[in-house]
């Protein structure tokens, strides 16, 4: 009877510490020249964008202004949505 046996090759693996996935990695800063090069490389990937006219900018600026009560109400809704999501997910 021919039986195949698996042979495992055990090798010593050095015990090197590994950073957990949630540990932030050190951020490497770019030189100004590298930033410019990266932006130049990115630019062809962005489509043509026409600048806004002064009237469009004025309209956009006035529409984006929100009163404090409206802002607070919006934040309260977002907080309530989190609570509702937690209640629904535990049901």
Structural key phrases:
mainly alpha, disordered N terminus, flat, 3 helices, 91 residues
Fraction of residues in helices? 40-55%
First and last CA, distance: 58 Å
Q: Shape from CA axes?
A: flat
| Strand and helix order | HHH
Cα gyration radius (Å): 28 Å
- β-strand amount: under 5%
Q: Let me know the largest β-sheet.
A: none
- Unreliable stretches (pLDDT < 50, length at least 5) are 1-9
Q: Would you kindly provide a written description of the structure presented here, covering whatever features stand out?
A:
This protein has 91 residues and is mainly α. The chain has a domain at 54-91. It has three helices and no strands. The chain is flat, with a radius of gyration of 28 Å.
Summarize the structure.
The chain is 49% helix and 0% strand. It is mostly helical and 91 residues long.
Secondary-structure map:
Elements: H1 32-42, H2 54-64, H3 68-90
């Amino acid at each position: 009877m021919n039986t195949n046996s698996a042979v495992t090759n055990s090798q010593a693996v050095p015990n090197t510490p590994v950073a957990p996935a949630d540990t932030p990695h050190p951020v490497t800063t770019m030189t100004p020249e590298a930033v410019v090069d990266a932006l130049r490389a990115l630019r062809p990937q962005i489509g043509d964008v026409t600048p806004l006219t002064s009237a469009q900018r004025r309209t956009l600026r006035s529409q984006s202004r929100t009163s404090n009560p409206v802002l607070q109400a919006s934040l309260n809704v977002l907080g309530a949505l989190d609570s509702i999501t937690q209640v629904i997910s535990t049901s």
